[in-house]
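note to self — DONT lose this again. spent like an hour looking for the file last time. sequence + predicted structure for the chain T wanted, 310 res
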Amino acid sequence: MSDPIVRVSCVRHTYPDRTEVHLCGLDFEVDRGQRVVVLGPNGCGKTTLLFHILGLLEPEEGEVSVFGVNPARHFNRIRERVGVLFQNVDEQIIAPTVWDDVSFSPRSYGYSDAEVEARVTEALECVGIAHLRHKVCHHLSGGEKRKVALAGALVLNPELLVLDEPFEGLDPASRTDLRALLNRLHSERRVTLVMATHDVNVVAAMADRVYVLLRGGEIVARGTPQDVFQDPGLLRRSNIEPPVLAELFQRLTELGAHLGRPLTVEDAARVLVEWGGRARPGAAAADAAAREPDGARRLPPEPATPRREP
């Protein structure tokens, strides 16, 4: 059994307006090298969970452990091992230029000028914004600001990266770029990822383990994306819109077509093509007969022109 690097067990927190979040039900655990997604509607306690992991909140009851310490009391012991990307990056970017902002942490921790320069250059190149190093942060686009904040989170080469709604407000191209970048960090650097989101469409490509939260903080499900999406009804009860593919293949199962639960469009297309070939035994032979030896599709013959009598 692996020893989780993050563990949150039955934590309770009450905000000044008396709103209570009780993160209980199932223990929240993250193993080293995992990609973990926390899925739930707005207001369910996802950010509260992340803030406890980061030591920004201390629980009234329950247990929080990150790399073996209570982060609310001993975050200084683990601060260089944890990076964070907040939902509102404008609150995270605190310096006037990109270089100033990304270099803030290593400069604050007393790194030499040469080490600061090396780490900042590596972080900027990693997220693909080396060309922005001297730009004023205020003039950047939303996607560029998010990459600046991510570079600042990566500059100390953290083992754990915590992300709160990282795709919020991004256009489709920027979402795709960020998803690929995070997966590359995981595969190449073995960075452990903990990400909170309400967007089910990123889960299949971003998660090894998924936790589902109800409003109020109850953790009601835990498993692989395949396990969690096996029950679209559970997601709906959690006020989460299930992925279209999950609902489609559940409906096909109910109608007698047991095709499994593919999570991606590519897998779904393959499953449906294979199923279609089995459902029409003569389809493959007919298709082959309709093709020329070079693989080109044979066109049907032209209809005969009626012969006119003189």
